Amino acid sequence: MKLCINGATTMPYPLESDVECAAKIGFQGIEVWKSKLDQFLQNKSIESFKSLLMQHNIDVAAICAFSGYVFCSEEEFKKKVKETEKYLEIASYIGCKNIVVCAEGFESKIREKIVEAHASRLSKLAEVGKAYGVKVAMEWFWNLRDANEVIKRANNDNLGLVIDTFHWYKGDGNLDNIDLIPADKLFLVHINDCEDLPREKLNDKNRLYCGLGVIPLIEILKIFKQKNYQGYLSVEVFREEYWKKDPLTISKEAFESLIKIMKLAKVL
């Protein structure tokens, strides 16, 4: 498994800083936060970003996050796909293999309609991504059984899953459901911990570095090892307390917490 940090963990800081700090600390990859990429490209070229990545010998695990494809009109869907092609082209150019797409609308719609809508729309998006050599990694926020059903119905080799340990814990917290996910459909892992609160009260601000909370990360990592998962473990923590620190300190703390939990799980 490869070590990665998500741009949300260092949210106040620019893309250049994400690359430089991650590389200096020892991460093998970064997840590029879409808004930071947009800001970078206002004044600089994508060629200069690729040069920066090469200079620091670091890869891009994914560009994140995209949303809004599933329950919009057909006309709006086509428009959004066209807009996304810009990022698929960028991803292809910098050697990034995934874009992260957020699932949507579960709270207010019937389960069957949600599963079918996600399978249909995201499979179409994945087909577009295939032309660029970029996969669509769906990030689910509820029961992973439903996410697995989406992937099964879509039956598209270019569509898979992001498992976010926080969303898994808040969504159902069942280790058996992680085990259900086919190994070849696990495209990316967002790894983090959280405070000991009732699940219904948890939100992103309750996230913590790995090993500082109640999520059974050791057991989860052992399941990933059994699946022979060799992709990125990307530290994604939305926490203002951490954001007040300088980016190198954040990167160092994120890295050290990830290394510690990986060693305890004997996956490093």
Features:
268 residues, alpha/beta, globular, 8-stranded parallel beta barrel, TIM Barrel, 48% helix
What does this structure look like?
- This protein has an eight-stranded parallel beta barrel with strand order 1-2-3-4-5-6-7-10, surrounded by seven helices.
- The chain has 268 residues and is α/β, with parallel strands linked by helices.
- It has one domain (2-264): TIM Barrel (Alpha-Beta Barrel).
- The radius of gyration is 18 Å and the shape is globular.
- Helix 4 (74-94) links the parallel strand 3 (59-66) and strand 4 (98-102).
- The mean pLDDT is 97.
- The N and C termini lie close together (8 Å).
- Helix 1 runs parallel beside helix 3, helix 1 packs across helix 11 and helix 4 packs across helix 5.
- 48% of the residues lie in helices and 18% in strands.
Write out the strand line-up for the largest beta sheet, numbering strands in chain order. 1-2-3-4-5-6-7-10
Shape: globular
Residues in helices, as a percent range: 40-55%
Structural class: alpha/beta
Fold-level CATH name: TIM Barrel
Please compute the radius of gyration using only Cα atoms.
18 Å
CATH superfamily: Divalent-metal-dependent TIM barrel enzymes
Low-confidence stretches: none
Concise account of the structure shown:
Helix content is 48%, strand content 18%. The protein is an alpha/beta fold and 268 residues long.
